[in-house]
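Contributing new complexes? Match this layout with adenosine-5'-diphosphate.
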Amino acid sequence: TSHLLLDGVSKRFSNDHAPALDAVTLDVAAGSCTAILGPSGSGKSTILRVMAGLDPVTSGQVLVDGVDVAGLAPERRGMGMVFQRPLLFPHLSVLDNVAFADRVSGVPRAVARVNAELYLDMVQLGGYGRRSVRELSGGQEQRVAIARALAARPRVLLLDEPFSALDPELRSDMHALIDDIRSALSPTIVLVTHDRDEASAVADRIAVLHEGELLQHDTVDGVYTRP
Ligand code: ADP
Ligand code: ADP
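Output block (do not edit by hand):
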């Protein structure tokens, strides 16, 4: 679990447009969960992509435990990411989807599969390992995507509207799952959502973005009570 700090991060896609992120300084304590809320176009996806090192910053730094991620190869940044669409590998079994990160880093198949079973258990899909991902429901697919991200033992887990395609009943199950994961592994989590109830349900702090600026980063109570 790691401390994540965005220090004066700006991101411009073009000089003709306002910056997508404008001098954002955001401090996410190790093991905490921050939800990023904001209207469409406010920079939520951009901030997550910048944290993951998928998009370079225009200025400022993204620091994980004090180390600038810009200088690290993608696989050394310690970022795990889950998107709105699970993007599983359709030709691999559920278990091998979860074992993928270990396999890429050279862990023998048998060991990788034993590890993967642990993460499938954690997302309550123990026993689903041999199935094809094509047999899964949308909620199950997203659980596998979460297990796959966790299996890479990320220092920071980045979730980009991971539950917005799911039915409301399923969403509350997923919020409980995030609580379970936090109890078991204490990863540092940044969750992008446009759902205030979701933010309040899962996060310790809420960051409010508006036109690329960070307006607030406060506890759930603080965000809704302070002027
Ligand atoms: P949100 O996720 O809150 O909807 P985004 O981070 O997707 O917002 O977008 C923030 C701003 O950056 C928007 O004005 C958007 O048009 C712009 N933007 C995002 N990605 C790109 C891109 N790849 N190229 C150009 N502009 C982009
Ligand atoms: P391979 O060396 O190609 O993995 P296996 O006989 O181990 O050969 O596996 C054949 C297929 O069955 C694989 O593509 C894998 O997806 C699936 N498979 C094998 N073992 C497991 C397992 N323990 N859990 C899930 N799927 C498995």
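Reviewers usually confirm one structural detail per submission. For this one: The radius of gyration is 17 Å.
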